[in-house]
Structure formats: structure tokens, C-alpha cells
Amino acid sequence: MKGDVLVIALSGKVIGGPELMEVKSVFQKAVDQEKNKVLLDLGRVSWMDSSGLGVIVSGHTTLSRAGGALRILNATKKIHELFIITKLITIFETFTDEQEALNSFGE
Amino acid sequence: MRPIEIRLPSDTSVLEPLQLIIEAVGKSAEVEEDELSLLSVSVVELAKNAMEHGNKNDPEKIVTISFDIFPNRIRFHIDDEGSWEPEKALGFNPGEGKELLLTRGRGVLIARNLAKWVEFGLTPEGKTRVTLIWPLN
User: Fold this and answer.
1) How far is A40 from chain B (nearest CA, A)?
2) Which CATH number fits domain A6-104: 3.30.750.24, 2.60.120.200, 3.40.710.10, 3.30.160.390?
3) What residue ranges of chain B have pLDDT lower than 50?
């Protein structure tokens, strides 16, 4: 936790296997523990496809319904491109600076 | 020369090996390092769709990926055992309006944007065949 923001860092490949269910459940656990502001750090994700985007959208919905928010930190150029192609960039605030991202939750 | 074929069960556990194979194919065809993962994302997305929409995720059903390397392009065929059209199978546009928040259905959209040419058609046997062309510089 950084202040009242839960920072979750993903790493490696996000490719659509059972590990995605784990990620999905992390968002629900966060809400269950009343931690509904989540900063998702994608800086160490080397490969991601639409399955990863689906889980991020699911996290956004889960947290928003609980009155919280999901924001994205350090998306690589290629992952950022996926957000643009799918227009998810219009939904998610993305950051490259952690402090700026954390501050954004208070705005 | 006949195209090289990869035959996969409709099981998502094979997607990671497929990603590595496609990047190796790209590397051997001298796809730029920076584009290798874009190529593999495109092919993996289409393979996943073939498993889901063509083969209904039945692990007994096969997705066949074949490729030919030409001097100026790589041509991939992604064949499944069904017969489906992307717009009908999805039934929605994942990039618009309220549907932006759906958790699935973005694979074809991504592949069509990353690859220079993606076309849905049929094999001579009437099964779905997706053709993806990746130009080489």
C-alpha cells in the first residue's frame, strides 16, 4: 500500500492461461478489503494480448462499482498501443511516474 | 515448397509455445526485432479465436497454422474445424460505446490493426481460414 492506494505489479507474459483468473481475483480481494484504489504497474510485463486487456477491464468494473478506480502505470510502448487500438485509452488514465499516478487518486 | 504446418489442440496452454514459435519464424524471416511481439500477438489472437469460435474450445479439435516465407512477406493461414464469421460470432463491436467495457472480443480488432492484412475466408473443405500477411522490409 502507498497511502490508500494498493499498487499491484504484474510481470512476465500475460497470455490467457489460468494465471489470469488469479489476477482477476486480486481485484475482488482488494474490494473485499476495502482497498478500492488500485495502481496497476505493467512495467515488467513483456508480452500481453486481449486476454490481459479483458482482465484489466474486469478490474476497472469491479473497482468502479465499489466507488474506486484502477489506473495504469508504466505500460510499455507496445502495451500502450493495444490500449489505443482498442480505445481503452479513453477509459484508463495511464502514467509513467508513480508519484504522479498516486497523486491522481486524490484529485 | 510446401508451407510449414503447426498443428495445435484447442487448449490455451499451447499459446505460450505458439508465441515463441511465431517469434522464431519472424526472426528467421528477418522481421525487425521491435515487431516480433506485434507479429506474435496477431497470430496468437487469431489462434485463440480459431480455438474458441471454430473449435468451441474442444481440445480434440485442431487449429492448424501454416506459413510461407516469401522475399517480401510472410503468409500465415490459421485454419480451424468450424465455419464462422467474426462479426456474427462476436455479435458486437468491442471498440465502441458501452461495449468498450466488455471483457472479451478484442482479438480480431487487435490482429487487424497490428497486421497489415487479415482476411477471413474458407478452406477448400469449407472450414474457416484466416490469412494474415506480414510484409518484410
Assistant:
1) 17
2) 3.30.750.24
3) none
pLDDT beneath 70: ranges in chain A? none
Neighbours of A29 (CB within 10 A): 10
State the Cα–Cα distance between residues B109 and B34, nearest whole angstrom: 21
Provide Rg for chain A, Cα atoms.
13
Query: A37: number of CA atoms within 13 Å, CB side?
Result: 12
For chain B, the average pLDDT equals: 91
pTM of the model: 0.92
As a whole number of angstroms, the longest Cα–Cα distance in chain A is 36
Domains and CATH numbers, chain B: 4-135 (3.30.565.10)
Closest chain B CA to residue A14: B16
Nearest beta carbon to residue A86 from set B12, B40, B110: B110
